[in-house]
Amino acid sequence: MDNYHIHPLEPLRFPLVARFYKTHYPPGKPKKDERIWVIDGPSGLCGAVRFQQRLEYQLLTGMLLHPDLRGTGLSHRLLDAVQETLCQRPSFCLAFRPLTTLYAQHGFTPVDHHVLPDDLAARLHRYCQSGKDLVAMEYSPKA
């Protein structure tokens, strides 16, 4: 696992990230105005996470690892690497229920939808109405 490098995305590599999402998670379409962190491995791009910037907060979204690398600990390394980004401003994520333990290990705690900014609460409601089992989580920096 030492052959993996985690770093912010260089803008010129955006098309590679877009293709990676299209291949492995088509609903997760990255946008050029997002802060994106990537994992590069021996065979190229193998993971990413995006931060959508809003006026008063940021949303960690679209964390994705190549399917062959899930369960290897790379997601933990990625979340460790973005801790400084998470500390810069209030941060939330809408986690698929099976991933809440992973996020909790990195400083996220479940929150009631009433705690969310209005636009994020509306998004959560829409997603849940469409059948997605999501949990709203807020980041709290480790003391």
Automatic annotation (TrEMBL):
It holds the Pfam family Acetyltransf_7. It comes from the Bacteria. InterPro entries: Acyl_CoA_acyltransferase (IPR016181), GNAT_dom (IPR000182). Residues 1-129 form the N-acetyltransferase domain. This is GNAT family N-acetyltransferase. It comes from Salinivibrio costicola subsp. alcaliphilus. The lineage of its organism: Bacteria, Pseudomonadati, Pseudomonadota, Gammaproteobacteria, Vibrionales.
